[in-house]
Design brief:
- This protein is an alpha+beta fold and about 170 residues long.
- It has helices at about 10-20, 45-50, 75-85, 95-100, 125-140, 150-160, 160-169; strands at about 25-30, 55-60, 70-75, 105-110.
- Helix 1 (about 10-20) runs antiparallel to helix 3 (about 75-85) and helix 5 (about 125-140) packs antiparallel against helix 7 (about 160-169).
- The relative contact order is 0.16.
Length: about 170
């Protein structure tokens, strides 16, 4: 069975720290459950620069909404928990880092131009989002393979009638 951590439902940051400590993890790759499609092809590149540059947090700028992820040092999360307030311990796990950038070494990398599409919504925050993501899955799913975000962007561009409800949000 896989190891897991149970904890305070409001102190999400503490649960992540406990999980990292349980696994003796120095780094966390974080994506949230409402993001079914991530830029998986770009994880290795970001991770390499993150490690080589000894950064506390790293992510890509201007990714399609819901496809991003972040790399964070466990030590940076521990510092955030120690120095932050209750709001920093919520599901907004790295909010203390964002509010105190001078205390951390940050890496914000740029994606290739064709992927810098923050207006593309690939998250499931609303029912309209879920419906669009279901269309994406139905149209692009191949058993055993992750769906490429570049293909989803092409689908987004080719199907304005499917994305229209999300543009109203």
């Amino acid at each position: 069975s896989l190891p897991y951590v149970l904890g305070d439902q409001h102190d999400v940051l503490k649960r992540i720290i406990q999980a990292a400590e349980l696994l003796n993890a120095k780094y966390i790759l974080r994506s949230t459950s409402e993001c079914p499609f991530i830029l998986g092809d770009y994880i290795d590149s970001l991770f390499k620069d993150f490690i080589l540059g000894d950064y506390d947090r790293a992510s890509y700028e201007d990714a399609p909404e819901g496809t991003g992820f972040e790399l964070v040092k466990t030590k940076a999360l521990v510092k955030s928990h120690k120095e932050g307030s209750d709001k920093h311990r919520s599901e907004l796990v790295t909010s203390y880092i964002f509010e105190n950038q001078g205390k951390f070494k940050l890496l914000n990398m740029k994606l290739p131009e064709h992927l810098r599409r923050p207006e593309v919504r690939l998250t499931v925050d609303y029912a309209e989002d879920l419906i669009f993501c279901q269309h994406v899955y139905s149209a692009l799913n191949e058993d055993g393979k992750l769906i490429n975000v570049e293909d989803i962007i092409k689908f987004w561009d080719a199907n304005p009638e499917l994305r229209k409800p999300m543009e109203i949000i």
